[in-house]
Amino acid sequence: YDDRDGYIWMDGKLVEWRGANVHILTHALHYASAVFEGERCYNGKIFKSTEHSERLRTSGELLDMPLPYSVEEINAAKEAVLKANNLTDAYVRAIAWRGAGEDMGVASKRNPIRLAVACWSWGNYYGDAKMKGAKLDIAKWKRPSPETIPHAAKAAGLYMICTMSKHAAEAKGCSDAMMFDYRGYVAEATGANIFFVKDGEVHTPIPDAILNGITRQTVIGMLRDMQIKVHERRIEASELEGFEQCFLTGTAAEVTPVGQIGDYNFEVGDLTKRISTEYEKLVRA
Ligand code: PMP
């Protein structure tokens, strides 16, 4: 991804894609002081742009690194980078981090907090899983307790176990992994939230150890508007066997049906197909 034409917005300026570099003593590289967002632009409009900018700022506050940019400035940076790259349908990645500077240790208050925004064309995250249903592995890593990490932050440090889980899943021919949380309840996939369907009703974990995805919140609202009951609750491992359908939600994943988790199989059913279609309509509306 580093060797291509285009522009990246960095600290208020558009820079050449290939020159968008940081110093090796960047604090974030050593101590994971970075927060980010993944967004999608459809037909020239970023879906929930302000909500993503607000979450980026909240993530920064949770990591004791308040961003020196307002929501309006972050929104404008995203618009500028899309325009510079001539993209109307794209994935947008904003990232804020502690840079290099006076300090080179765990404490880093004197180092600048920086912001960059990149964008690129990115198709379906799970390939042809949209039709057949994605195959998920069960991750050996557990989502940590809120007393261990600020789980509501979309922070780089939380993705170490996600990368390891996804690598293990891909080695087994799966497209992703489902993670349990530290208590053993169903949590989420490595970059998407999870939903189950049984008897026409929907069940999804309480976001108390997972990221409360913007797509998750959107889909819950859509389901309730369709008069479909949504239960946000703790889901035990033993319940997986009894669910009929399963789907993932996320900016990159959109609404992706799941066909298999470990040894459990799910049908790509009508409710899943309906919500996937309705979501596609909504983001382009
Ligand atoms: N959980 C994790 C771990 C994620 O990385 C993502 C993607 N940001 C999500 C859930 C879904 O969040 P959103 O709908 O806001 O993209």
From TrEMBL:
EC numbers: 2.6.1.42
Its job: Acts on leucine, isoleucine and valine.
Organism annotation: Paragemmobacter ruber
Protein family: Belongs to the class-IV pyridoxal-phosphate-dependent aminotransferase family.
Cofactors demanded by this protein: pyridoxal 5'-phosphate
Name under which the protein is recorded: Branched-chain-amino-acid aminotransferase
Source superkingdom: Bacteria
Catalytic activity: L-isoleucine + 2-oxoglutarate = (S)-3-methyl-2-oxopentanoate + L-glutamate; L-leucine + 2-oxoglutarate = 4-methyl-2-oxopentanoate + L-glutamate; L-valine + 2-oxoglutarate = 3-methyl-2-oxobutanoate + L-glutamate
One MF annotation (Gene Ontology) recorded for this entry: branched-chain-amino-acid transaminase activity
